[in-house]
## 1
Amino acid sequence: MYTELGLFIGGKWTNGANRKSEPVINPANEKPLADLPHASKGDLDEAVEAAKKGFEVWRKTSAWDRGRVMRKAADLMRERVDAIGKILTQEQGKTLAEAKGEVLAAADVIEWMGEEGKRAYGRIIPSRLPGTRQMVMQEPVGICAAFTPWNFPAITPARKIAGALGAGCSLILKASEETPGTAVEMARAFADAGLPAGVLNLVFGIPGEISEHLIAKPEIRKISFTGSIPVGKHLVKLAADTMKRVTMELGGHSPVIVFDDVDPEKTADAAAAGKYRNAGQVCVSPTRFYVQENSYNKFAARFTEKAKGLKLGDGLDKDTRMGPLANARRLDAMNAIVADCQSRGGKLATGGKRHGNQGYFFEPTVVTDLPDDSKIMTQEPFGPVAPIIPFKTFDEVVARANSLPFGLAAYAFTNNAKQAAAIGDALEAGMVGVNTYAISMAETPFGGIKESGYGHEGSIEGLEAYMTKKYIAQA
């Protein structure tokens, strides 16, 4: 049911012969799925040379023809969604329904950006000098390198692949070594769609070694990274040495503000569904729940009821509603968070411990009565632990929601139109959902502020991130 893994360089697949490798582990049972070959420095240099050749072909390919190839790749992913979804679930753990939904969303991103490449418009600036034409042209930035994490093995690579290829760039993608099969299948879809050799290259290995080697290459003119804030800051420093353009999509800690003019139980149903999606391993996951006092008890009780009712299990089981965490590190992190909550006087409404003794399962957890300076209120949990805290006034909760150095996503729920506008304006985040958790689509910009990074993926901003502007004055 899994897939054959390999490196994809210059349009050719390379297996693990005479290369270092590592096992890919199924987080539901801790059993190995396959061995993943690592790229050597020679492989990386070959990928750069392949990307140079690919770029020369792709940049001269019309936006219409680029769009056709990208749409074909997206269609192949849709045709193969059942197979790719099973691969994704086996290596990452999320439910099969979530995995298939992610693959389809990734296909949408690829198709949308292929279409948007046709609209990479320049402009004419009226000249003050007779006989002079002033033009602004959009051009692909060049060879790009992208680095993606394990929590969304399809959608995160898709955003980077789609932006780069839609703009006319070539790309070297280092996808996560823990969830490589999905990226391998995406690369196969592009190859089968007729993408010229070298336009998309896929490598794996020790993350720090690969990023440092590729970012030092002067041929690479843009990098895009999704991951933790410390690693993002390190890569920005590396990129500065050769003045590479950078897109950083880093961590978050999304506040959810629930005002007392909404139905607390209906709002809790949506909140629990959003929180426990992918076991909370989502960068825009709702993670700090502030509920106005009059609604607090009903909201907390209903949210806890929903958490208790979630069936844990292998994501391939149709009855499973929450799969395992992706790796053993997340189990350790959840245990540390719960221990800190308890040491700070927090009350466990449900959960709080590992589920079973095989697989990386952790119970859906709800914690109440926490101070604002506790670990879970100040650090991104990235797991199925939800703190629920009461608040009194608008100004108070805005100050608490904006108090952290993160600014990726934020959410608020109110039936008051004036209050909805006010909270949308007041929250400091790159993406704000008012009465909705649906903030990530192919046609909308995805990105954060403050230490959550800068730059955007998706929408026209995601295309422009891979383009440069050239001004031409012609007399």
Note: Residues 96-116 form the longest helix (21 residues).
## 2
Amino acid sequence: MATELLNLRESVSYWGDIEKAALALLSGKIVAFPTETLYGIGVNANDSAATNCLYRVKQRPESKKLAIMIAEPDDVTKYVKEIPPIARILIKSFWPGPLTIVFALPDNKSIGFRNSSNRVVRDLIKFAKVEIASTSANISGEIPATDAQQVITNFGDKIDVVLDDGPTQFKAPSTVVKIMDDKFEIIRHGVIEEERINRCLDENCLSFRS
């Protein structure tokens, strides 16, 4: 089945296209969407079969966990019951925005969350009423897509729906920060520079460092 490309720049069909993509997510399909950084591909985070399919299409080892896209900052509490103070400050300062925050869980695992400032992916999550397990729209190790046509070039008909909202704002990845109690570690440098994070924490009378 050919990939369905939906042009969100035609405002008259915006909500109809969001609904199509939401129904695709709920039926176990892979959807590509814009963020402010790069295009992503994702599936219903509660659908293990769809998640396995996403790993195969991405050619990503399952040891590399997917991020969870959430619609609102408070949605992280569905998964993480205890939010460390340093994480609360980063959430307040940078969400919605190009920051992925990785939390350590009680079972010695970790999980990353992203609350994008792009309205398309947030509207998609809200309409589907499920979080999205996601990754950048590229085969592992290749260049990530920054527009819808690059998504099609990267995956052909291996994904089901592409939401086209034009080129991304930053054309660079989100910064990924791992929280460990009262410390943080940058595990991927991106749009938000480490200096900005340090300055944010200093202004809140904290001296946490990676």
Note: The two ends are 47 Å apart (CA to CA).
## 3
Amino acid sequence: MEELFHRRSARIGQAPGNLNHMGPARAEPVRITLMNYDAERLDEREVTTIDECHECMSASSVTWVNIDGVHDPSVLEKIGEKLNLHQLLLEDVAHTDQRPKLEDFEDRLYIVMRMLSVSRVEDDNDGEEFRVASEQISLVLGPTFVITFQEDAGDVFDPVRRRLRESKGKIRKMGPDYLTYALLDVVVDNYFTVLELFGDQAEELEEEVMENPSSETLRDVQHMKRALIQMRRTVWPLRDVLNVMIRGDSKLIRKPTIVFLRDVYDHTIRVVDIMESFREMVGGLLEIYLSTVSNRMNEVMKVLTVMATIFIPLTFIAGVYGMNFDNIPELHWPWGYWYVWGIMVLVGMVMLLYFRRKRWF
């Protein structure tokens, strides 16, 4: 996942409302798509300027403007000018390391959330591992419109677009606050997809830790722990955002929509519970890994200790009869050599039987 802590030293001394993009460098042009609808019709198209979006907005319809790319300050300035967006709001849009939050600008409601996406890549051992990427989604709710800012093209909003095109459910009959709910809901539901992959990997790691732990296993466990920490930083603040929204303090959120927002809040609580369970599981995997490695080391040390213990009396016997004295009686025995070998073999067998009886190996 992305870095846990971003370097903010580049922002020191900048004036409030600075629109210089803070995030991965991008060169592709900004893409603006428009969906204007009511209960009877839907107008969907890609536009080249924000002026076209502004002309479509009316009190009798809902307008959803989706902007892919926040790296062009001139586009953000134009949007802020046409739609009366606060300069600090635009600054948060351009600085893509914001934590999920909610800010009320009276006639505008600004919501920041994190969208998670999963991709499978080949690792160094010709296997597969999944990587979780986090992208900031900025959402502006107005009286008749919703604006979504994304860092790059591609999102999880296709189910919402499909419902709008097919006029399924209440979405075409409700206002922009209901569209905001639908977008929040699909982002939160996508967290469950990420958690399912976490669960699959946790099961694989648990089996690997128990059977054949290695340094690669430890690396995978640490990677998963880091990803869960990042996901926790994504989900916990969003829970607080939804909690504020369902209180009904904003005039932009109507009472019928609050019921649906409660459902999203419940989903967020479930995500938090599952995530905390996985965090405990990963912590347990680390303990199991250390215990397994320690047990394997103990087994090796036990075998070496048994072997060394057996050879101690044998070394003593060989040392006694290795002394260079002329008056050693056994030195001149015809069968002295085989006599000493017999004693050594007997001592070794007795010790082996004793160790086996004690179940030391």
Note: Confidence is low (pLDDT under 50) at residues 1-5.
